[in-house]
Amino acid sequence: MISLNESVLVVVDVQEKLFPLISQKKKLIKNINILLKIFSQLNLPIFISEQYPRGLGKTIPEIEINTKKVIKNEKTTFSCWKNLNFRRNLTRISKKQIIVCGVETHICVFQTCMDLFNNSFEVFVSEDAVNSRNSESHLLGIERMRSKGINVVNSEMVLFELIEDSKHKEFKELSMLIR
Length: 179
Description:
The radius of gyration is 15 Å and the shape is globular. The protein has helices at 25-41, 53-56, 84-93, 105-118, 135-148, 155-163, 171-175; strands at residues 7-12, 46-51, 70-75, 97-103, 122-131, 151-153. It contains seven helices and six strands. It is of the alpha/beta class and 179 residues long.
């Protein structure tokens, strides 16, 4: 189960020059923003990575960042974990469950998830909040992560596992995100 006390959201490489090539963009933006709103509302840490932003641009403006708890990391490695600043920042906050969303499922998302998993984190990839340039690569990435022990969830599962109870003070507002 995803725990409120142990969770961090990692948004991988949703950038200006890469994003227009990604499959099912509207659905992807919607679900990434749902996760961002959940984590913002619950005051949980959010990491955003940008793969070589001089070449691929910054995070797209459609991604809604409504919190000061965002930690941004520029990287050239495909895996976020292989970036020293990311690794230091993540280690410093001492959380063990990582929820991952972003692009591309079969490259940066996959490598990030595997490195986190191999470094003793419990990793959850939100299948409805990741994608690739084509659906075959996306499905292959999901299938491979699942076979390696990565938890495959969706944004609605993340929400209800984090709040656990309909009496949670944020339930009413957050549950509106998935209707």
